[in-house]
Amino acid sequence: FEAKAPAAALERLRAVQPRPILTDRAAHLPQIATFLDRTPNAAIVWISDGIEDAGTGFSKSLSELMTKHGTALTVLKAEQPPALALAGGEAGGQLKAHVLRAAPNGRDAGVVRALDLKGLPLAEMPFTFEPAATEAEIGFDLPVEIRNTIARLEVAGERSAGAVVLMDERGKRRRVGLVFGGTADQAQPLLAPTYYLSRALTPFADVQQSRGGQGTAEAIGQMLDNQVTVLVLADVGALDDKTLGRVEKFVDEGGLLLRFAGPRLAAGNDPLVPVRLRRGGRNLGGTLSWDNPKTVADFPPESPFAGLKPPADIGVRRQILAEPDGDLPAKTWASLQDGTPVVTAEKRGQGLLVLFHVTADTTWSNLPLSGLFVDMLRRVVGMAGSGAKPATGDGSQAKAAVLAPRLTLDGFGALGSPPASATAVSADYGDRATHDHPPGFYGPAEDGISVNALKADDRLKPLDISGIAGARIGGLGGAETLDLRAVLFSLALALLILDTLAGLWLGGFLGRGRGGSGNGLIGRLRSRPALIAFFAVGLFALSPSASPARAEGGPSVRAGNTESALITRLAYVTTGDEAVDTASRSGLSGLTQVLAARTALEPGEPAAIDPAKDELAFYPLIYWPIVAGRPQPSEAAIRKIDAFMRNGGTVIFDTRDAQVARPGGPPTPEGLYLRKMLATLEVPELEPIPSDHVLTKAFYLVDTFPGRYTTGQTWVEALPPAPTDGAERRPARAGDGVTPIIITGNDLAAAWAFSKDGAPLYPMSGGDQRQREMAFRGGVNIVIYTLTGNYKADQVHVPALLERLGQ
């Protein structure tokens, strides 16, 4: 930190961008201490969002710093933090999301959307907070095929990385089919291997089991017909040729075959195993035996189980032995303490063969009773269809230990290229995002992981500043302006009257005459009409009724049709979002004032309209800001807007997303909302505004149409192609009529908006105040164009027309 001049500090603040991580304020304490050592007379202002951060003890440590240096501290924080966050997780086999807020803030309902990797919507689920609740839980109950394409959950209308949960292969549910080669004991189902497998797999997979009475071949055929991604065979022996061929094809085409040992597998000669097996098995007390049950050794680094810790109480009493081939070590994922394999695997075609050399029940080991069994199955099933390459000979194709960042979220929740500061994460990374590991996707697209701003169990808490003593606490709300013009004018007039009276007194005009009252004050005033008029005006100006009328700060009252028919007025569509509607009202009011000051047009006050209820024919131009979290317009509203556009009206659809939209990237929530709405309208072919369009010359000569942002593209109805037959190029082109639709993302109304005292309400994205002037010029051009149409195109051509007439 270093001291800067106010102008330089303001310029730096305008360039500040939010970071997509939970704030760790304690990490900045050393820099604050260094700054206070260098600048002993400094005052500290802490501007907070009102949410507790990821660190601990910041308030207490900051208070100690302030006391040590004798520094004044001001804390400005949001009393009701407006932000909503999202944490995702899976519970009971259902994809769940937790919408979070630090405290009740009036945002009691909304929508969570599920999107695929291209940004296309797959599902929506509304949420509602209880009156005093800070968490709302929702669940997505979707078919496996749809759920597995979800790449992103987000709170509609929120532009924050904290309101986004990215999904990876770990969050996908595989369809798993269980087939038991033995005869199930209907009286004791809890002893069947499928019981332990289904209990272990259900939390993260859709499990299907063979029906009682089915043969092995029939059960396997049913599972393959159901298009399972993982086929689990528990103690299944030799298969007939037809079934064997189907299973081999399943594996070659990318399926995962998971097998468990048993007496039948030990007695057969099966080709669907990753290693050559020795006939029979080794068991406690047998010919090839050990004195005590063996425990599982630590997993090697190249194993998919790396990072898991085998409990010391797991004992293996019997196992199927593998023949000691040269490639056996590379195919071994887990082994016992004596080095004999207990889990082996091999890649076949595009698929994978995995073999547990013990049974899936407790007859050969107590592994199925442990939590390690669940974790091992989770990792094996997670490799199905993910492109994960198990070891095939040298162990080099195991999943990479670290994954480089591929796409990351910025502070507004938009995916883009990772920053230079982003570093790789471990393949089993499960913590929240940090500065070095921003939220996003890491590793290859087919086998990567996601890192999110919040963990599934994170919750938001209001900021606790009780440990700070002597600080001045303030809010983040804008200071309310007080109009003192009437008071100051009255005070000045009162002083003028007093000065006049003093002058009259000193001049002897207020003295009592000798001839009685007729020559006194009243008599002299009768002979001075101007003086009487002066006092009358002064008394009127000081009277309460002379105070100027104040404009109401509430929403504009919808005017009647008669007023709208007699006065040209701009209109905006109310969205139900108070902040957006305020910006629209203030923005169109500012544009109206500029039109009245710079052109011959004197529009009336802007009208707030509901397309479903109000008559639209009275308005030449309608401004429609897009709010993604709101319901889609009704059918009646769509039909009226369609008729308005076909009859010569123009609608500006402003998605206000230019700052977060990425060219070539997935569409923003506002873009998706607008796309869905326009799908029901008769929209003409669109194009970016060409440089020779009459819109660029309707009043001012402009090249672009910026708003609060400048990076958004502005689209209008496509014009007929320019002549290519050698004809003289016209200075401006226009179609047969006015474009019925203008689409932008630059947030025009925010650039036009001014407060009652004439101050801009919203800063420009780049900090350049000329940008606001250009936004007004673009707005003037749009209004003049909608009112005059092709007339301005003809006016541009006047010099050429006069030249031809002279010829």
Outline type: elongated
Secondary structure category: alpha/beta
- What is the third-level CATH name, the topology of the largest domain? Rossmann fold
Number of domains: 5
Question: How do you describe this structure in short?
Answer:
The protein is 27% helix and 18% strand. With 807 residues, it is an alpha/beta fold.
Structure description:
The structure is a single chain. The protein has 21 helices and 32 strands. With 807 residues, it is α/β, with parallel strands linked by helices. The protein has five domains: 6-81 and 463-475, Rossmann fold, CATH 3.40.50; 89-167 and 401-416 and 438-451; 173-382, 3-Layer(aba) Sandwich (Rossmann fold), CATH 3.40.50.880; 495-546, no CATH class; 561-799, Rossmann fold (3-Layer(aba) Sandwich). The chain has a seven-stranded mixed sheet with strand order 11-10-12-13-18-17-16, with helices on both faces. The protein has a five-stranded parallel sheet with strand order 27-26-28-29-32, with helices on both faces. 27% of the residues lie in helices and 18% in strands. The two termini are 72 Å apart. The model is unreliable at 284-288, 387-398, 513-518, 545-559 and 726-736 (pLDDT under 50).
